[in-house]
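Same chain as my last thread, 696 residues:
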Amino acid sequence: MRKFYLSTYHFLILFISILSWVYLLGFDYINPTNISWLNSGDLSTYQLGWEYFRSDKWRFPIGLNPNYGIYSDSNIVYSDSIPILAIFFKLFNFLLPEKFQYFSIWILLCIYLQILFSYKIIYIGTGNKLFSFLGSLFFLTASIFIHRSGIHLSLLGQWLILSGIYIEISENGKKDFLRLIILLISLLVHFYFFLMLIILIFLQEFYKALFLRKFLLEILKKLIFTIIVSVFLMYTIGYFSINLDDGLGWGYGYYNFNLNSFINPSGQNNIGSFSWSNFLTKQNYQNKEIEGFSYLGFSGIIFFIIFLFNIFNGKFNIFFQNLNWVIITLPFLMISISNNINFGDINIVSIDLNKFVYAFFSIFRASGRMIWPVYYIIFIIGIIFIFKNFKSKSTLVLLTLLVLQISDIYSGIKNYSFGSQYSVIQENKKNPFWAGLSKQFDEIRLIESKNQSSIFHELSEYLIGENFIKTDLVNLARVNREKTTFAKYNLIEDINNKNLSIFNKKIFLTRNKNIVFYLKNLFQDKIYIYFQDNIWIITNIKIRGYTQYDFSSHIVTELNVKDNFTIDLSDNFLIPSIGWEIQKKDQGFVSYGYTSSLFLKIKGISCEKKNRIKFHFEKYYKDLERNIKFLLKDGNNKIINFETNNLESVTLDLDCNASNVYNFTFEIDNPISLYDLKQGLNREKKSIILKSISII
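reply #2:
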């Protein structure tokens, strides 16, 4: 082993790794003090997760990151900030510069280990160094590897899959120990790799027990021990900082593998969509099946044919007798395809799953990723087949196939260089409004708190390097759904109670102008409101150097009323002020939480006549037999108690007032969520749909 690391081929692997690293990132971005490229989408949450983590004190579990995602039970794991490096560099935080990122280092490490482990695998099967080196370059240029370089940096750790295969085929006497180590490392990189490895390892072990007459009891002991150690590490890092059911999600059968994915070169990066192939045209796929993107390339398709040939000939384990390829590949293939089997944009069959079965498989939310071990096994089988069958000409044949492969997929590789992806982004000039706000305020929050909000994606480039002490403006893989939901409800309650203290040293953000109108009328001159980048900013402190939004001409949604006037809310004419969200198109507005308010100005009514306002409702859960209880208050605190199972309408007298401004509050006693109904994981409590308003 030591001899290899001093060999020419090892230095060649190092050289190719560094060359590929520079090509992919460019000289500017390999600098660990350059954080400018980590300013959009998922890349920004990796960096923000790290910045908040490094600036916080050490906690236990050690991955806790509560300031990046208050009320979310946030953890460095769920910001995908590569925990193994985040924890390591936090230990030396006192030595690091103010602006620092380790993601460029991670990319180099992944490139190097990707080549190294693929080289070692092929060398075990061939014993030829030159052939093994050429074969390893197929893995460096693998579309599933390059594809993740600009989207999900943690998922570049695909060398973990290769290391697992290498351990299985090697004759190392410390195999059990190495398995455990690689499993624990995978937990410190990304949970999907742990799932792949645990399936890979124990499928093989059970195969040996069933067909090679190994002792099943010993295998079960290994499995139990591995799970115990893994769970202990998960607890120590903070995987369980959220509830178990919060770790589940929707998406199984949506982010899946399309049956055409191996031959479909349709790809996308941060700029847009493109074709990975110079030989084949793009094909259709469904929904979010880009997660299952796995174009094999021209030579990869040849390897796939070889793979199928070996399987149908019953020679599926011909190259490594201690590894059964079918036993490994079949479960991965089935999980990745999911219960929705699609070819292109054609749905072949959809299988309804029991909700408990679905909940289990939701662990594999982005199930399309589970095709990766199959992808790499296809290349391993194909490359070693070339060596075994072409003998003296095998190196020449493999070199020819490598040239064809790169010729085919070079457009894809080129589109994933960071220079091509981020040159456009880097031209965008940051609005100076956001710079330095963290020196004036401790928190930046959303009024309608939401994980992965559109505001986050638009502001993330401003937030990098401008850390507030706390924020709920986050993009996390998983959150505590209950805490996040009730934080939003509590904020609405505080607003309706005119609790000014909620604004202390905080910035609140929203896109809903009617919420802003409501806040302005509620708190008057006690708050300051600004409008930047199509986002409303609400504070109780003046922001130096900037002028407040002028509300003198436009402060509230106005209704110009005629006799028997009705406004249908399904046309999205009016967005109620707070505690509502837009239902599906043409379906009105649905209440969420316990309090929803409607704030509007009604012009054209006569004080000489008796005027009434009539609210037309529907139940949100139409098939649910339950009474809905709520109080409806007008601006003078007149109250109507309302309880019904046949919800249709509620009528109030309209008292004349000088301003013609009315504030109606719906206090809902018994909203209910899908989680309460045991029909899903969503904790958002809903009750009524406001369809229309009539003035009589």
